[in-house]
Structures are given as structure tokens and as C-alpha cells.
Design goal:
Layout: H1 3-6, H2 15-38, H3 57-66, H4 79-88, H5 100-103, H6 107-120, H7 132-138, H8 140-146, E1 174-177, E2 183-185, H9 195-204, E3 213-216, E4 221-224, H10 227-237, H11 279-294, H12 300-314, H13 326-329, H14 357-361, H15 365-370, H16 390-403, H17 416-429, E5 455-460, E6 466-471, E7 475-480, E8 486-491, E9 502-507, E10 514-519, E11 522-527, H18 540-549, E12 562-570, E13 576-583, E14 590-593, E15 599-603, E16 612-616, E17 621-623, E18 634-639, E19 645-650, E20 653-658, E21 663-669, E22 675-680, E23 686-691, E24 696-700, E25 709-711, E26 718-723, E27 729-734, E28 739-745, E29 755-762, E30 774-779, E31 786-790
Antiparallel strand pairs: 1-2, 3-4, 5-6, 6-7, 7-8, 8-12, 9-10, 10-11, 11-13, 12-13, 14-15, 15-16, 16-17, 18-19, 19-20, 20-21, 22-23, 23-24, 24-25, 26-27, 27-28, 28-29, 30-31
Length: 795
């Protein structure tokens, strides 16, 4: 060997062995320099059953340097053969570059190669397939490194921590401390290993073509990976889960069952609130009904019909040159309605300068309209003289355009034939009056009064046997309905304020013969059927009034009304009977009973906050339901037929107050004249009012605050209106001397509107006296009869 060759490293000699030793020393030095320059960081891969943090690219590169990927084809030769070939042919460029991808083959391929090498009896170490002898030779140290035991069971393991750089211990003899605080000495002598030695062994193939050993830089050890760990590394590099036991797509467990629960979730008794009608649902139903009545909500059949009509309109033939955007042209730039100028009539033959001969013979209509004569004819247009009225016509045209009302009137085709046709269609929809019987049709009886005095009010007792009237002479008369005989004539006691007119009378609805009469500032409670004969028993009305008078002595006087005893004279029998008198302090005009017969209300239009007073007969007490008056003066007051609701009618409004809850329930607005009279339907959901504008307005409380129907049949002020208690009838009495009877059917369902049909007009029912006609009307409680009174003194 050459001297230079012999001095290349330790153990150099002659022959092939010396050459190999020298080249090995040279490679060691070059590898160490490359490691120092490139800072090759070969990190240890912990021998653990689960490797989950090996997906980073840096770790993958470190593992490529640390794990021998084997060689292809002839690279599987033995170490001795490669040494000989390397001594002769090996060069730096011929060193095989082993890649990690060759090692990380599919699991199936590795299994096949492992089985083939096992069959050939190769001495090379395969992945996880070491022999039993080698396992025994490795000893407990290898098993400790691969096991899952705690750090206390491992010996001579680096304990400095991963956050501390290893270069700090580069010049130290120890590599950390154990549990007891003693230093852990570095490996020395033959057991000492380094990264460079491991790298060279890999390159030379000393560790085998498919070695599964890696260098643990942290602990300065060589760690051998098992077959399961290698498979986990391959799966991680492929983007898969490390373990086969992990199911990336587990079966979805249903969170709900399809079985129906036959038992309730909460077995508690039903609350009482669920058995009460819901106010929210009632309001919702009212809104839906209102929407259906106004056409906002339509059934599918109607929507389909409208759709077909729209399609037919779209498919209709239209004028090609007409104004397509006519609706938009009606709006001007400032948003006001655009009214196009009227078109001038086009000239005809009469305006021609050379008309036909037949137009020159006689005057025609065109000549009269245009105020010209067509008997002139010119051969050419230049011979036609100037029009003498040109300036006048243009001025009149501009004046018409300037003074015309800026409003579009869309009357449509309102010819007499169309109006008659529409009226016939509306009448065809209504039932015939003959189908709506019974109703009052003719005069049956008359109840005469003395000297033709004006009768202001009539009232029938709940049984229908007696009729009470109040007149201007201050007398309350009681007639027998069946015979028209006057049974009682009550002369009210004289008043200091000289008021004689009895403006209102009303029978007690509790079946007792107590009659309520209003005269001026006082309200009287009379025993209507009290007898003046000797030994006659007291009537129920007398007993009720006597019980109430017993409370007057100990009762405190009310500041709103004064209760006192009054004696009324009976004009026919000559006797006197005791009654009650309530002095209101203000002039009263009307009274009405509560349906139970213990309470009654009075109306004093000039009373301000005491315009409406509620009185209790059994306690002789008076109270005012309102602290102050709202709106205009009060003209009428009525109780609801079945609920604690009080209806108060002013000149323009009708308000409904709940007496228990003390709140406003409804507010109705009259749109025609001042209200004079009011009547409540027996069901309490509909109201009619009479106004000074000769109209009768029907209000539906469930529908709206405005009038549902307005009846314009009278020609003068409507003085009184009334509903029948049993039949679907209502009537109105007016100063025009007529009484109109209507059929008014109210349905229980919300979808059907009330049916209003005029059935009878009682013409000339009362003669007009002093501009006054019919003053009051009242239905019989059981029969389809109506009682009317007027200024002519007749009933």
C-alpha cells in the first residue's frame, strides 16, 4: 500500500482490507463534516403503540435520514460483496440514494416480502420479524425501550427534558439526572454511539436492506421499531388513521325513536285555564272573519276563478297603438292626479272648404254644432278666408282648461238601463217579503189620548198585557193591550220647576208592576197596577216600593241624587198611592232598566260627569260610573241584555263599558248626523242608532267600529228605534210620520253577515203636528206587533 494510503486512518493496512479501512475513515470524516454543515437533526421516534404526531414534514424528513429504506435489485447483496465491489468500483456518485417511500410500501407488499425472506432464510433483520434468539440477546434494555412502562423502570435514560438543547451537555460527562438526583453518565468505550456512526452503518448496509432501527438523538440510543409501529407510520404518511381499529365513518345512532308514546310526558291534571275560552283566539278569529268579509282572505275556488279571469284578460286582443301605460300617465310629476284635456270634436264634411253637394243643400247637425254654414264652397284652400272666431274659441278653450276641476271622475257606464239592471240583481238576491212573515202589516188598534196631546214614549210590560204611555200633559196612562181600555191614569205630583212633560216610561223587566217615568228633573217609581178598591191586596210592585221606602229613614243622602217618598194620584179610581221619587238636580230625558230589574239608569245631557247615573232600587242608592264626561253630550244609555256592559251614546260615538272590569270594551263612530236614539239586539252583538240625518245605522261589534249598514229610507229625523225580543225584526220611527219595519236576521257563525231586508213601510202612521211625527215605537214581547206613538196624540 502507498504511504499516503496507509496514513489515512486507524487500522490501515495493505491489501483490500487496508483500502476499505482507509476509505471508511475518509467517509466518516466527510459524513461528520456534512452533518456539522447541514445541521442534520435526526430525532428519535419513541417506541410507542400509537404514533399520532408524525404528520409534520420536518419529522418525515428526519425519519427518512434515520431509517434505511433498503435498495432495489442488486443492492440486496451481502456486506462483504459490497466491500469488495466498493474497493474497486464504488464512488461517491454511485452511492444509492435510499428513499423513505421505498420503505413505506403498502402493508400487503411488506407482508409478502417478509414471508419471502423468511422462506429464503435470510439473515437480514425484517420489520418486526426478529428471531427468538435475537430477542433473547437484545435483553431487557430493548424491551424497556419498546414497552409502555413508566420512566422509573428505564435505566440510563435522558431526563434533561425536551426543551433543553443537547449542546449544553456536549462537553459534560453526564447527560442528566435520575430520580434520586444522581448524574447519568454518558456511554463510554465500545457502547458509545453517535449520529455519524449510525449514518455510515446505514449507508454501508450494515444494518440490513430493510432495517427498522432508528437513532434516538435525545437518549443517544439505537431504537428498533416494531412491525406495528412501521405500519402506523405508513398509514400516517398516507393521511390515514394510525390504527386500524379506528373507524372514520361510524354508524349513526338514532337519537329519537319511532315508537309512539302511549303515555303523556307529564302526568298532571289539566289546568283550569285550558277549559276557558281563549281571548287571543277569539281576537284572531275576529281578524280572520274581518279579512274574509273584506276579501283579504279568499277561498281557493275564488282564487282560481280570479286567476282564470286574469289569464283571459291577458290573452285578449288589444289596440297596438293605444296607450299601454295609461295608469302611469294619470300621475303627474308632482304626484298629483293628471287630468287630460277634453278632446275637440273633429271637423266633418261641414267644415270642409269644398263639401259634397248634398251637404250644401240643407242645414245639418254638424253645421249647428260648429256654428258654420256649409253652403260655401271653394275650389282651393288658398281662397278660403280667415276664420273670424279663431281668437275667441282659443280663449274660451284656455279658460276651460284653467277653470276645470282637477279631479278624475270615473263614473263608468251609469246609464238608466245599467242602474235598473243592478237594482234588479240586488233584489233577486234578497228574499221576498212574503217569505219573511210574520211582521206588522196593517193597523189593528188605536189607543186614544185626551185633547190630542203629544205622546212621547210607550212601553209594554214583560207579559204583554199592559201598555204604558207618557205624554206632554204629565200623565202616565196604562192601557189594556187586548181591549185598548185605559185602566190607570197616574197624575204625577207637582214640581217646583214647572216641568210637566213625561219624556220616557219603562216597565220593570223582573215581572213586577213597577213603572219608571221621567219628568223634568225627577224620576218616579210607580206601582202601575195598584188598586184603589177597598180590601184590595197589595201588588208585587207596591210591596217592592214599600220595602225600599223602609230604607229611606236610616239611609244617608246621596250628593248625586235625592231619594224621597212621593204620592201619585190615580185619576180614574180617585185613590192615592205611595211611590218613590229621585231628584237628579239636572233635567233628565231617558231611563232604562237592567235585565235583572234592580238597577236602572238615567240620562241627563247637561249633567257633565253626572250625565249617566245608575240607581239601585233595593238600597235606594245612586252612583255615577264615570268621573268625567267623554266627547259630546250623552243622549242615550242602555244595559247589555245579558252581560255587565253599559252602552253610552253621545252625539257622535257609542261607547261600551264593562262595569266589572271598569274598562272600555268598544267604541263605535257614527258617520251621519247626531245620534238621537239607540237600541240593543237581544243577543247584544249588534246595535242600531237613529240620527238627525234621517238615517238608521247598523253596527256589528264583532266586525268594526264603523257602521255595517246605513239605511236612508226616512226623510226626517229618526226619533226612535227598537228590536223585537223574539222575532228577527227591528223598526224605526221618524218625524216624517212613517214607521219602517225591517227583517234583521243575525247569524251565530262569523262567516255570514246579518241579513237586512225592508219588509213594510207604515205610511201616514201619524200625522205631522208642529213638525213632529212619530215619536216612539215599541215591539210586543211575544207577538209580532208594534206600538207607535206620535205628536198627533194617537198610539
Amino acid at each position: 500500500a502507498a504511504p499516503g494510503t496507509a496514513a489515512t486512518g486507524e487500522g490501515a493496512g495493505t491489501g483490500p482490507e487496508g483500502v476499505m479501512a482507509g476509505r471508511r475513515a475518509t467517509k466518516r470524516k466527510e459524513a461528520s463534516d456534512a452533518v456539522e454543515q447541514d445541521e442534520v437533526d435526526v430525532r428519535a421516534v419513541e417506541r410507542s403503540p400509537s404514533i399520532s404526531s408524525a404528520t409534520d414534514e420536518s419529522d418525515s424528513e428526519d425519519i427518512e435520514l434515520a431509517i434505511d429504506s433498503g435498495s432495489d435489485g442488486d443492492d440486496d447483496r451481502s456486506e462483504d460483496t459490497r466491500q469488495i465491489v466498493g474497493a474497486e468500483e464504488e464512488d461517491e456518485d454511485d452511492v444509492p440514494k435510499r428513499r423513505w417511500a421505498a420503505v413505506m410500501d403498502d402493508d400487503d407488499g411488506d407482508d409478502e416480502e417478509d414471508s419471502e425472506e423468511d422462506d429464503e432464510g435470510s439473515e437480514e433483520v425484517e420489520f418486526g420479524s426478529e428471531s427468538e434468539d435475537e430477542d433473547e440477546v437484545v435483553g431487557s434494555e430493548e424491551e424497556d425501550l419498546a414497552s409502555d412502562s413508566s420512566e422509573e423502570e428505564r435505566e440510563h435514560v435522558n431526563t434533561i427534558g425536551e426543551g433543553i438543547p443537547l449542546k449544553w451537555y456536549e462537553h459534560e460527562r453526564h447527560i442528566g439526572y435520575d430520580v434520586e438526583g444522581k448524574r447519568i453518565q454518558k456511554q463510554a468505550g465500545e457502547n458509545k454511539a453517535s449520529t455519524v456512526d449510525f449514518f455510515l452503518d446505514k449507508q454501508d448496509g450494515t444494518l440490513g436492506s430493510k432495517s427498522n432501527k432508528v437513532w434516538d438523538e435525545y437518549n443517544q440510543r439505537v431504537v428498533e421499531l416494531t412491525k406495528e409501529e412501521m405500519r402506523a407510520i405508513r398509514r400516517i404518511r398516507k393521511g390515514m388513521f394510525p390504527h386500524l381499529s379506528v373507524d372514520p365513518f361510524p354508524d349513526l345512532l338514532p337519537w329519537a325513536t319511532k315508537d309512539k308514546l302511549h303515555e303523556p310526558m307529564v302526568d298532571l291534571p289539566e289546568p283550569k285555564a285550558r277549559f276557558l275560552p281563549s281571548k287571543w283566539e277569539a281576537a284572531k278569529v275576529v281578524k280572520l272573519v274581518r279579512a274574509m268579509r273584506k276579501g283579504w282572505i279568499k277561498p281557493p275556488s275564488e282564487l282560481e276563478r280570479e286567476r282564470k279571469e286574469k289569464e283571459e284578460e291577458e290573452s285578449k286582443v288589444y289596440m297596438l297603438w293605444s296607450d299601454d301605460n295609461k295608469e302611469a300617465s294619470w300621475k303627474a310629476a308632482n304626484g298629483l292626479s293628471y287630468v287630460p284635456a277634453t278632446k275637440v270634436k273633429l271637423p266633418g264634411h261641414a267644415g270642409s272648404y269644398n263639401p259634397p253637394k248634398e251637404y250644401m243643400e240643407d242645414e245639418n247637425e254638424d253645421d249647428k254644432d260648429m256654428q258654420i254654414s256649409s253652403k260655401q264652397s271653394f275650389d282651393c284652400l288658398r281662397k278660403v278666408p280667415a276664420y273670424d272666431r279663431f281668437v275667441n274659441e282659443q280663449f274660451e278653450r284656455c279658460l276651460d282648461l284653467y277653470l276645470c276641476p282637477r279631479m278624475r271622475s270615473r263614473k263608468g257606464n251609469r246609464t238608466a238601463e245599467n242602474l235598473q239592471r243592478r237594482m234588479a240583481e240586488q233584489k233577486a238576491k234578497l228574499p221576498k217579503p212574503s217569505e219573511l212573515k210574520p211582521y206588522p202589516r196593517k193597523l189593528a188598534m188605536e189607543y186614544e189620548h185626551d185633547d190630542g196631546v203629544c205622546v212621547n214614549s210607550v212601553s209594554v210590560d214583560p207579559a204583554g198585557r199592559w201598555l204604558a204611555t207618557g205624554s206632554d200633559d204629565g200623565i202616565v196612562r196604562v192601557f189594556e193591550v187586548s181591549t185598548t181600555r185605559c185602566l190607570r191614569k197616574w197624575i204625577l205630583p207637582a214640581s217646583d220647576k214647572r216641568e210637566r212633560k213625561v219624556t220616557s216610561v219603562s216597565w220593570c223587566p223582573a215581572g213586577k208592576d213597577v213603572l219608571l217615568a221621567v219628568r223634568g228633573y225627577q224620576v218616579f217609581l210607580l206601582p202601575a197596577m195598584a188598586s184603589s178598591a177597598k180590601g184590595a191586596e197589595d201588588t208585587p210592585g207596591q210591596l217592592l216600593i214599600s220595602q225600599s221606602m223602609g230604607l229611606l229613614a236610616g239611609a244617608e243622602g246621596s250628593p248625586m241624587a235625592k231619594w224621597s217618598k212621593a204620592t201619585a194620584k190615580e185619576g180614574l179610581g180617585g185613590g192615592k198611592h205611595d211611590g218613590l221619587c229621585v231628584d237628579l238636580g239636572k233635567k233628565a230625558t231617558q231611563c232604562s232598566w237592567h235585565h235583572k230589574g234592580d238597577y236602572f239608569s238615567t240620562v241627563c245631557p247637561s249633567g257633565n260627569n253626572m250625565a249617566v247615573l245608575v240607581h239601585q232600587l233595593s238600597k235606594c242608592a245612586t252612583q255615577t260610573p264615570f268621573n268625567k264626561s267623554k266627547g259630546n253630550k250623552v243622549v242615550s244609555c242602555k244595559f247589555h241584555p245579558s252581560k255587565p256592559i253599559l252602552f253610552v251614546a253621545s252625539e257622535n260615538h257609542v261607547r261600551a263599558f264593562h262595569l266589572v272590569k271598569q274598562e272600555l270594551v268598544a267604541k263605535l263612530i257614527s258617520g251621519s248626523g247626531s245620534i238621537i236614539s239607540m237600541a240593543i239586539h237581544p243577543q247584544g252583538d249588534n246595535i242600531i242608532v237613529g240620527t238627525t240625518a234621517s238615517r238608521v245605522e247598523w253596527f256589528d261589534l264583532d266586525l268594526s267600529g264603523k257602521a255595517y249598514k246605513v239605511i236612508r229610507n226616512h226623510t226626517n229625523t229618526v226619533q226612535d228605534v227598537d228590536f223585537h225580543a223574539r222575532y228577527p225584526l227591528f223598526a224605526s220611527a221618524s218625524d216624517d210620520g212613517q214607521v219602517h219595519v225591517f227583517h234583521g236576521m243575525v247569524y251565530n257563525d262569523f262567516e255570514t253577515n246579518p241579513l237586512i231586508v225592508p219588509v213594510k213601510i207604515l205610511k201616514n202612521a201619524h200625522a205631522i203636528t208642529g213638525h213632529l211625527g212619530a215619536q216612539s215605537c215599541c215591539f210586543h214581547p211575544q207577538q209580532p206587533w208594534i206600538f207607535t206613538s206620535g205628536a198627533d196624540g194617537k198610539v
